[in-house]
Automatic annotation (TrEMBL):
Residues 183-220 form the EGF-like domain. PANTHER family: PIKACHURIN-LIKE PROTEIN (PTHR15036), SP2353, ISOFORM A (PTHR15036:SF85). This is Neurexin-3-alpha. SMART domains: LamG. InterPro entries: ConA-like_dom_sf, EGF, Laminin_G, Neurexin-related_CASP. Keywords: Disulfide bond, EGF-like domain, Repeat. The keyword Disulfide bond applies.
Length: 238
């Protein structure tokens, strides 16, 4: 099925993935946590290159993908609404919203692809300035630098996103927060213990232990025990 809005087209279809394919691609597991995000190098919609990815979820709402022109006029937002994929797109400050008729919150893999289409002479291309965000938009970005008002407050995506491509190439992952990286990548060895979430910080795997009750570099230290050690240290210094 296709979404058509101005000069951008998106096609959604079910996809069956083999286990071998899962082992070759970088997969992102989103937990639906506040201020989660994965940030990729900008996708330039004016190049006519395809943008595609596969996803799987069992939830009905959440932000899949977002990019814009730095808070001026143009934006593209893919999200889940009532278990279906919604495309919201603005070009030349004219917004269009299209909702697919297919439910996708069925824990099955679905394939989504977008490409540039026939272009309007007065405005040949959608302007894209921002990086591309998956699963959420960082809270530290100024709202004035985001074209779609309230996008940072949208519920984060919960599920798996696999094999993001710009044309036939994999874009560079600039960083992530609250996202588990699977398959290949710095977090592929799952260094975080006790349910800690691995994310990239300055290109290095780092553990988010905030929801685990544990602390330390790898979420391996019991917080209560650590607090007791610190208390004992303070008492010994008195």
């Amino acid at each position: 099925m296709s979404f058509t809005a101005h000069s951008v087209f998106f096609t959604l279809k079910a996809s069956v993935l083999l286990g071998s394919l899962l082992g070759l691609c970088l997969g992102l597991e989103f937990m639906g946590l506040p201020n989660q995000w994965a940030r990729y190098l900008r996708w330039d919609a004016s190049t006519r290159s395809d943008l595609s990815f596969q996803f799987k979820t069992n939830v009905s709402t959440g932000l899949l993908l977002y990019l814009d022109d730095g808070g001026v006029c143009d934006f593209l937002c893919l999200s889940l609404v009532d278990g279906r994929v919604q495309l919201r797109l603005s070009m030349d400050c004219t917004e269009t919203a299209v909702l697919s008729d297919k439910q996708v919150n069925d824990s099955s893999w679905h394939f989504l692809m977008g490409r540039s289409g026939e272009l309007q002479p007065q405005r040949p291309y959608m302007e894209v300035v921002s990086d591309l965000f998956l699963g959420g938009v960082p809270a530290d970005i100024r709202p004035s630098a985001l074209t779609l008002e309230g996008v940072q407050a949208m519920p984060g995506f919960k599920g798996l996103i696999l094999d993001l491509k710009y044309g036939n190439s994999e874009p560079r992952l600039l960083g992530s927060q609250g996202v588990q990286l699977d398959a290949e990548g710095p977090c592929g060895d799952r260094p975080c213990e006790n349910g800690g979430i691995c994310f990239l910080l300055d290109g290095h795997p780092t553990c988010d232990c905030s929801t685990t009750g544990y602390g330390g570099k790898l979420c391996s230290e019991d917080e209560e025990t650590e607090e007791q050690r610190n208390l004992g240290l303070e008492q010994s210094l008195v």
